[in-house]
Amino acid sequence: TVIRTWGSSKVEITPVSDYFPIKKDLYQSVNSNFMSSLPRDDVSPTQPIVIYTVINPITSLSYGFNDLMSAVGVTIPLEISNLFDNIPADFYVSQFWNSNGSSGYGIIGAIENSIDTLPNLRDWEITMPQDFKLLFKYDLNKAASTTFLDNNYQGVAIRYLNFPISDLTIDYGIVTLADGRQYLVMTNSKEHIYTIIDHLLGVLPGK
Fold first, then answer.
1. Rounded distance between C-alpha atoms, residue 57 and residue 5, angstroms
2. Which DSSP string corresponds to 8-66?
């Protein structure tokens, strides 16, 4: 556990990195091809997921959600970026070994609890497929539906759009930890988001 200032209070929390078996610091410049340049050897069928703290090699500062999205050219609605502004930086990129052997990519970021979060994310769905097409590596023309659809896993509400099947998607959801912290999770496969949820909820072991 670590002691972290959260608003005006100091609280003892378990770092999110402890929910996963492997977390690495990645010193790397970031652009729209960033995800596909993640070290493929870091994942395998026996170790399918790794999370990274991404660090700017020039400034030695870790990227937060807003910083990284800006660097890769993803436009974030103001209502979404504000969710990350008033809490400590707690952001990770994930790489996943899909069961079909393809690479999966994702992001995990702590967000401020707000009743407006889900409505604001749904509003973002209008441009989200265009915004993430380079980062998540799918073909917009292969979308299986014209709008996002609903799913639920381990009690977590998920919204998704397949391109055209579930091993190449946008899947996103809000995961609430036992201590009340909330994390926005976004991935490019269903299998990947399920695995992240299992780790965050303690179904799968961490460190």
1. 26
2. TEEEEE--GGGGSS-EEEEE----TTTGGGS-GGG--SSS-EEEEEEE-TTT-PBP-HH
With bands split at pLDDT 50, 70 and 90, how would you rate the model's confidence at 85?
Answer: confident
3-state secondary structure of 205: coil
Check residue 202 and give left, alpha or beta (phi > 0: left; psi -120 to 50: alpha). Answer: left
Task: Give the residue from 128, 202, 111, 134 showing the smallest Cα distance to 171.
Answer: 128
Write the CA distances from 199 to 1, 16, 185, 204, integer angstroms. Answer: 17, 9, 12, 5
List the one residue out of 136, 180, 177, 170 whose CA is nearest residue 154: 177
CA distance 17 to 12: 15
Q: Do residues 110 and 87 make contact, with C-beta atoms less than 8 angstroms apart?
A: yes
**pLDDT above 90: residue 196:** yes
Tens-place pLDDT, residues 68-78: 999 998 889 99
Number of helices (H), then strands (E), belonging to the chain: the values are: 5, 10
**Residue recorded with tokens 């052997």:** 101
Q: What percent of the chain has pLDDT over 70?
A: 92
